[in-house]
């Protein structure tokens, strides 16, 4: 009797373990954390419903991060890369791998709409790729801002370093600090940056000097969630 009960219990436990193992999503790999949310922010995992994001929430591989109008979401990756999703921004984390011992790995993002600011972390510049509806951006140790218009056109303003902009139907061009590139996927135009009216320092509250091991200071603010890890 006791032996039969123990066998039945073991069978139940086996099924429970199997259930929980299957229930764990394969994509639930933490790649960073949310440092700040202004107004509202959301995160969506593949096959799941959109969920609100708050400061100190985990950022997961394959998560799509979305900000509302005039909102901002400040994300810090494990390699200390900083991603700021601005007004109406929608960015998906396609890939992330990082070896802290060798500071090697790669990070691939896909920005669909709105605004984004990107400040590289500890990995080599060739480790970072940003895709938009009309271009692929290769990073060379950099701080830059991306804006996607309603038709999918891409505007890249480089604040520090160099970005290689390759239109989906064009040839690559190097865009240096102080310059802005614009493309609809074909030709690309590059000109001196003449101010950043919608994507200014005040809006994003980040400088390249703040992206160190201590995790920089956020300026601006408002009624959002703040704080570090």
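Sequence proposed for the structure above (229 residues):
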């Amino acid at each position: 009797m006791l032996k039969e009960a123990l066998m039945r219990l073991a069978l139940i436990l086996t099924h429970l373990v199997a259930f929980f193992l299957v229930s764990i999503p394969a994509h639930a790999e933490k790649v960073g954390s949310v440092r700040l949310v202004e107004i509202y922010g959301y995160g969506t995992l593949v096959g799941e419903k959109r969920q609100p994001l708050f400061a100190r929430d985990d950022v997961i591989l394959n998560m799509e991060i979305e900000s509302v109008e005039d909102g901002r979401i400040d994300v810090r990756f494990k390699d200390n890369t900083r991603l700021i999703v601005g007004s109406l921004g929608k960015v998906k984390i396609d890939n992330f791998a990082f070896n802290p011992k060798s500071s090697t790995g790669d990070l691939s993002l896909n920005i669909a709409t709105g605004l984004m600011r990107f400040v590289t972390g500890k990995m080599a510049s060739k480790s970072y790729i940003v895709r938009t509806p009309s271009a692929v951006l290769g990073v060379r140790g950099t701080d830059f801002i991306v804006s996607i218009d309603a038709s999918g056109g891409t505007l890249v303003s480089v604040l520090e370093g160099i970005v290689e902009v390759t239109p989906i139907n064009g040839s690559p061009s190097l865009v240096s600090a102080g310059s802005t590139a614009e493309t609809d996927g074909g030709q690309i135009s590059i000109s001196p940056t003449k101010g950043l009216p919608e994507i200014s320092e005040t809006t994003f509250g980040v400088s390249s000097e703040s992206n160190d091991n201590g995790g920089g200071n956020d300026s601006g603010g408002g009624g959002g969630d703040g704080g570090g890890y």
